[in-house]
């Protein structure tokens, strides 16, 4: 049985594994770290779905799959930049429509992507448990951030989570999602990015959780 770590972008990979070079197989970049495979999926729902599906089709011994990376936190979440969290429920929040400034997810108009338009992850003890929204249209205004947050009550936002969770569920694979908060959502002028702190804390978590040095 094996473990695999999925990371959305090469930028994130290079901050976490600066000395480990990547190979390419036409679908994704990957590397081996001891007995763990690391897959760089590409940004967003489509890329993570292609990469994870291809990986699981070709590796039938996966026991645990981890999606790790950075994420934005909604202002009202109480989270700080640099916090590392374990995601429980992850919503396809922007698959839907907006009517009179009210956001309806696809499940509310009879076309659910999956049950309740969300996927559910296993969680890691010792980290803050949060719910997440997965978006293609980033919440780059305070108004949109509020719309997303109020819809599901999620604390954080990423671009891959719910899609990854759905692929893992289809393959019956135990999935985990660990994110380090790099910025706040909303108005791009006030997002307060701190990439360095986010990756320092994420790397520390990886070291203790998966014995990755
Ligand atoms: O600017 C940099 O140096 C840099 C270094 C590493 C990664 C990045 C990214 O922008 C990665 C994009 C990645 O991060 C997630 N993310 C982060 N903040 C948010 C957000 O506010 N809303 C949605 N997604 C966010 C996302 O999952 C992307 O895959 C930059």
TrEMBL record:
<dbReference type="InterPro" id="IPR035994">
    <property type="entry name" value="Nucleoside_phosphorylase_sf"/>
</dbReference>
<dbReference type="GO" id="GO:0009116">
    <property type="term" value="P:nucleoside metabolic process"/>
</dbReference>
<dbReference type="GO" id="GO:0008930">
    <property type="term" value="F:methylthioadenosine nucleosidase activity"/>
</dbReference>
<dbReference type="GO" id="GO:0019284">
    <property type="term" value="P:L-methionine salvage from S-adenosylmethionine"/>
</dbReference>
<dbReference type="GO" id="GO:0009234">
    <property type="term" value="P:menaquinone biosynthetic process"/>
</dbReference>
<dbReference type="Pfam" id="PF01048">
    <property type="entry name" value="PNP_UDP_1"/>
</dbReference>
<feature type="domain" description="Nucleoside phosphorylase">
    <location>
        <begin position="26"/>
        <end position="203"/>
    </location>
</feature>
<comment type="similarity">
    <text>Belongs to the PNP/UDP phosphorylase family. Futalosine hydrolase subfamily.</text>
</comment>
<dbReference type="InterPro" id="IPR019963">
    <property type="entry name" value="FL_hydrolase_MqnB"/>
</dbReference>
<dbReference type="InterPro" id="IPR000845">
    <property type="entry name" value="Nucleoside_phosphorylase_d"/>
</dbReference>
<protein>
    <recommendedName>
        <fullName>Futalosine hydrolase</fullName>
        <ecNumber>3.2.2.26</ecNumber>
    </recommendedName>
</protein>
<keyword id="KW-0474">Menaquinone biosynthesis</keyword>
<comment type="pathway">
    <text>Quinol/quinone metabolism; menaquinone biosynthesis.</text>
</comment>
<keyword id="KW-0378">Hydrolase</keyword>
<comment type="function">
    <text>Catalyzes the hydrolysis of futalosine (FL) to dehypoxanthine futalosine (DHFL) and hypoxanthine, a step in the biosynthesis of menaquinone (MK, vitamin K2).</text>
</comment>
<dbReference type="GO" id="GO:0008782">
    <property type="term" value="F:adenosylhomocysteine nucleosidase activity"/>
</dbReference>
<dbReference type="GO" id="GO:0005829">
    <property type="term" value="C:cytosol"/>
</dbReference>
């Amino acid at each position: 049985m094996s473990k695999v770590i999925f990371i959305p972008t090469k930028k994130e990979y290079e901050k976490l594994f600066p000395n480990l070079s990547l190979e390419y197989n036409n679908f994704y970049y990957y590397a081996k770290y001891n007995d763990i495979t690391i897959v760089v999926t590409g940004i967003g729902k489509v890329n993570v779905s292609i990469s994870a599906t291809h990986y699981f089709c070709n590796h039938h011994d996966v026991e645990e799959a981890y999606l790790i990376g950075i994420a934005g936190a909604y202002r009202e979440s109480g989270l700080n930049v640099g916090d590392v969290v374990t995601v429980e429920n992850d919503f396809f929040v922007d698959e839907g429509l907006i009517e009179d400034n009210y956001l309806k997810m696809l499940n509310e108009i009879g076309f659910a992507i999956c049950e309740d338009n969300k996927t559910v992850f296993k969680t890691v003890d010792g980290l803050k448990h949060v719910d997440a929204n997965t978006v293609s249209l980033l919440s780059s205004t305070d108004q949109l951030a509020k719309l997303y947050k109020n819809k599901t009550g999620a604390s954080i936002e990423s671009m891959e989570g719910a899609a990854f969770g759905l692929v893992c569920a289809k393959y019956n694979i135990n999935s985990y999602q660990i994110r380090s908060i790099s910025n706040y959502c909303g108005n791009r002028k006030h997002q307060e990015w701190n990439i360095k702190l986010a990756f320092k804390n994420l790397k520390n978590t990886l070291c203790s959780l998966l014995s990755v040095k």
